[in-house]
Amino acid sequence: MASEHQPDIEFSSAGYIAGGRPVLSAVSFSVAQGETMVLLGRSGSGKTTALKLINALLMPASGQVRVLGRATSAWDLIKLRRSIGYAIQDVGLFPHYTVEQNIALLPRLERWPGERLAGRVDELLQMVGLPRHDFARRYPDELSGGQRQRVGLARALALDPPILLLDEPFGALDPTTRTDLQAEFRRLTQTLHRTSVFVTHDAQEALAVAGRIAVLDSGRLAGVYTPREFLASSEQAVQPYLKMLRAARELSS
Ligand SMILES: Nc1ncnc2c1ncn2[C@@H]1O[C@H](COP(=O)(O)OP(=O)(O)OP(=O)(O)O)[C@@H](O)[C@H]1O
Ligand SMILES: [Mg+2]
C-alpha cells in the first residue's frame, strides 16, 4: 500500500478509446501524496475521462492507472471509491434529498452514528460557506448553481478521503466567490494534506490552486509544470493560456 515515496496516483502510458477514437493517448504523470495536480485543457481534451480512470468508472484501454500503489483494475471498487471524494462536473445532487441529506449520503452508508453525522454535516456546511439555518433543509432546485456546486464539494469531502477529484468544481461561481473558494480550497488541501486532482479550463484558476499543472491537449499530455514553469513555458499548447493571462492582466491594470 501507500508508502512515503510512492505517488498516490500514477498514470503509466494510459490510453482510453471511446466511439472508436482515442480520447486519451499514452498519458503518464503522477501525483504525490498531499499534492494538488491541476488538469488544464480545452473542452473535449479528456479531463473528465482522466478523472474517471482514477476512480475506475472507466478502465484504461492501454497502460495503467495506479491509485495508492495498486492498479485500478486490481482494486475492490467499493474500497477504492471510499478512498476518493469525487465532485462531478454536473454536481449530480439527488433532487429529492435536502442539502443536509445529500451531504450525509456517504457517512450514512458507512453507518455513522447520528451525533457524529450531524457534527460532520455542520462542519462541512461551514467549510463551504453555507450556513446551516439557511441551507440545510433546502432542496437542490432551491439553490443557485454555485450553491449547488458547494454542496457537491461538501459531499465529496464528507468521509475525509485521502484523495479528492474535482471536476470544474467552481465553474458556476461568480468571480469573487470563485476566488474566495480557490483560496479556501488551497488552505484546506494544505492543512488536511489531501492529494487532489482538480480539473479546470481556466489558467488563472489553475495557477491559484495548483501544486503542478498537467496540460492536456486533444487527449495527449503536453507537459506537467509548476506554476513558475508554466508561466515561462515555450510549449505550444501552453501559449493560448499565457496569452489569455496577459490579456486579463492588461484589462485589470
Ligand atoms: N462514450 C463516449 N463516446 C464517444 N466519445 C466520447 C465518449 N465519452 C467521451 N467522449 C469524447 O471524448 C472526448 C473527451 O471527453 P471528456 O469528457 O473527457 O472531455 P473534457 O476535457 O472533460 O471536456 P469538458 O471541458 O467539455 O468537460 C470528447 O471529445 C468526448 O466527446
Ligand atoms: Mg469534463
Overall structural class, as computed from helix and strand content, comes to alpha/beta
Q: Which value, in Å, is the CA radius of gyration?
A: 18 Å
* Total number of domains: 1
- Say how many strands there are: 10
What CATH calls the topology is Rossmann fold
**Major sheet, described briefly?**
6 strands, mixed
The ligands found in this model are: adenosine-5'-triphosphate, magnesium ion
How far apart are the termini? Answer: 50 Å
Helix/strand order: EEEHEEHEHHHHEHEHEEHH
Strand order of the largest sheet: 6-7-8-3-9-10
| Assembly level | single chain
Q: Find the CATH superfamily.
A: P-loop containing nucleotide triphosphate hydrolases
| Beta fraction | 15-25%
Please report the number of helical segments: 10
Spans of at least 5 consecutive residues with low confidence: none
How helical, in percent, are the residues? Answer: 25-40%
Highest CATH level, the class: Alpha Beta
CATH architecture: 3-Layer(aba) Sandwich
Structure description:
With 253 residues, the chain is α/β, with parallel strands linked by helices. The chain has one domain (9-252): P-loop containing nucleotide triphosphate hydrolases (Rossmann fold, 3-Layer(aba) Sandwich), CATH 3.40.50.300. The protein has helices at residues 47-54, 77-82, 99-109, 114-127, 132-135, 145-157, 175-192, 203-209, 227-232, 239-252, and strands at 9-18, 21-31, 36-41, 62-67, 70-71, 84-87, 163-167, 195-200, 212-217, 220-225. The chain has a six-stranded mixed β-sheet, sandwiched between helices. A hairpin with a 2-residue loop joins strand 1 (9-18) and strand 2 (21-31). Helix 3 (99-109) crosses helix 4 and helix 3 (99-109) packs parallel to helix 6. It is globular. The termini are far apart. It binds adenosine-5'-triphosphate and magnesium ion. The site of adenosine-5'-triphosphate has 13 residues, from helix 1.
